[in-house]
């Protein structure tokens, strides 16, 4: 027999390590028990190099950037969303109060952008994008010119004498002319992006 640590009732334990008589007692016991490392956690560092800590704010456990938390403790007030904490020496996990200062977002961006030129990779990327835009513009102009030529050719074939302008008026020639006219109309629909361009 053993005694439950939550309700104090006697029960038959299933193992030597059993301390509770039921699952509800286990849940209550775990809820009231503090973690073995409570208050000793040092937080963690994210991929960018910033250090985080868990704090209790407004009754909820939330993750907070350590440098903002230290600046709030130093100023004895919460930081505004427009206030940014800057690391003077550039080391993101060096959160000593003497290494931190408050800056606005525009001032912080200007501070880090001053004296920094465009990298070679950024230049190559912009050049590729510019070439791609130029090629798209050239293809668009060519497509418009092709569409105008096709519409003009279709108009000439639609005239009464247009079908026999270059082809003699035999039955076989009429079939060839009609096929050419339908093919031109399909190309026009294809150039305009209309559906059914291949139905002819």
Radius of gyration: 39 Å
**Helical content (DSSP H or I, runs of 4+):** 40-55%
Number of helices: 5
Number of strands: 7
Strand coverage percent: 5-15%
What is the structural class? alpha+beta
Order of helices and strands: EEHEEEHEEHHH
Sheet of most strands:
3 strands, antiparallel
* Low-confidence runs of at least 5 consecutive residues: 160-174
Rounded mean pLDDT is 76
- Number of domain units: 3
Sequence of strands across the biggest β-sheet: 3-4-5
- N- to C-terminal separation? 91 Å
Taken from the alpha-carbon principal axes, the silhouette is elongated
How would you portray this structure in words?
The structure is a single chain. The longest helix has 39 residues. The protein is elongated. About 8% of the residues have low confidence. It contains 5 helices and 7 strands; from the N terminus they run ββαβββαββααα. It is α+β, with helices and mostly antiparallel strands and 200 residues long. Helices cover 45% and strands 14% of the residues. The strands form 3 sheets. Strands 3-4-5 form a 3-stranded antiparallel beta sheet. Strands 1-2 form a two-stranded antiparallel ribbon. It has a two-stranded antiparallel ribbon with strand order 6-7. It folds into 3 domains: 31 residues, no CATH class; 69 residues, Alpha-Beta Complex (Homing Intron 3 (I-Ppo) Encoded Endonuclease, Chain A), CATH 3.90.75.20; 73 residues, no CATH class.
